[in-house]
Design brief:
Blueprint (H helix, E strand, L loop, with lengths): L7 E6 L7 H13 L4 E6 L3 H4 L7 E4 L8 H4 L5 E4 L5 H4 L5 E3 L10 H18 L15 H17 L8 H13 L2 H4 L4 H18 L1
Parallel strand pairs: 1-2, 1-3, 3-4, 4-5
Helix pairs in contact: 1-5, 1-6, 1-7, 5-6, 6-7, 6-9, 7-9
């Protein structure tokens, strides 16, 4: 099982100075599903991105491998979850990849892919005895599942810029908190607490800009 053997997760960072709310949410969701993995935030085309050591056990979330490393990584069976249009041709070269086309799947960001492709198969079956098959999760109302689903959904709304969505402002508030809080802090928080901080602190963080 490739998911069970993941040791290192690489998620998108907007730049060396600035975090990406979708990348950070992706890292949070993946760490909740796979708590022993190392999560690394890297900016695309940065030295850290170009110099990822090809090896087994890699998962890229909201990020794809640098083009210079494609050949070296092909034999390492990385898992790749991405929605950036510029990465579509890269993902097509890897069998264990999931690409979300922004035109066909509006609202599906890296966080949503982390939720549907990793969190649900691992945590859904484990936590919810009433939902025997993880695909039933779409209608599950159990509090832990509902909170993580809501977190991923809101981040997807904001990251893919669904401006006409009725929860777009709420999604923006959550994302303000996500880029403010360090990953190490987020890892200690339950999803409902992250949502609450987004509602309470997001507007204040937005106002300071």
């Amino acid at each position: 099982d490739l998911l069970r053997n993941v040791t290192d997760v690489y998620v998108h960072r907007a730049s060396l100075q600035d975090a990406c709310s979708d990348g950070r949410a992706t890292g949070y969701i993946l760490h909740d599903a796979l708590p022993t993995v190392n999560v690394h935030e890297v900016a695309y085309s940065s030295r850290a991105h170009r110099n990822i050591v090809p090896r087994k056990g890699l998962l890229f979330g909201d990020l794809s491998p640098h083009r210079s490393q494609i050949e070296a990584l092909k034999n390492c069976d990385p898992i790749i979850l991405d929605h950036h249009k510029s990465a579509a041709d890269v993902l097509a070269l890897f069998p264990h990849s999931v690409y979300a086309d922004e035109t066909k799947e509006p609202g599906v960001s890296g966080a949503v892919l982390a939720f549907t492709e990793v969190w649900l198969p691992i945590r859904g079956v484990k936590r919810c005895e009433r939902c025997r098959h993880w695909k039933l999760w779409q209608s599950c109302t159990c509090p832990p599942f509902k909170a993580m689903r809501e977190l991923a959904t809101l981040v997807g709304i904001r990251d893919t810029w669904q401006k006409d969505h009725p929860r777009f402002k709420e999604a923006g508030d959550l994302c303000e908190f996500l880029v403010f809080a360090p990953l190490s802090t987020l890892f200690q928080m339950r999803p409902q607490a992250v949502l609450t901080c987004g509602r309470e602190m997001g507007p204040l963080l937005r106002a300071r800009v």
